[in-house]
Amino acid sequence: MGLALLFALFILVRFHGETRFFYLYYMVPIAVPFVAFLLDRLEFFNQTTLAQHILDIFILALAILRNFVEIPLISGHAIFLTFALFSTRTKLARITAALVLVIVVLMKWYNWHDFYTPSGAFFSGTIAAFLYRHFKQRHVKKSGFELESR
What we know:
With about 150 residues, the chain is mostly helical. It contains seven helices and no strands.
């Protein structure tokens, strides 16, 4: 929450007018599930496979890249939030991702009449989360012991 407040203060000082308003209502809320996602990944870092780390980096890079490059049928916010919702283990990460995902989808549908990028991102994020969990299961089976999951 502190990171979101710092980000909001930065936006208030740095930007003006419509840009300021856009950043405050669309960019600041994602800071909370992003930090929860990072804390989730940090908590389970030693139980994560290389393939899972690579998938995390890929999804994060795609979500960030989406701010600078037009990627058809993908919302950066929605793909990250969907992936976080279905691949994290902590309740905090899942709840914050779900809440902000609802906000993002509603904004895209009602403010911008964008039905395609949230749908494409939800589909892609769900598949990525499935792969993330699949990589974990393969690692557990190969190692010969079962890891506790929440």
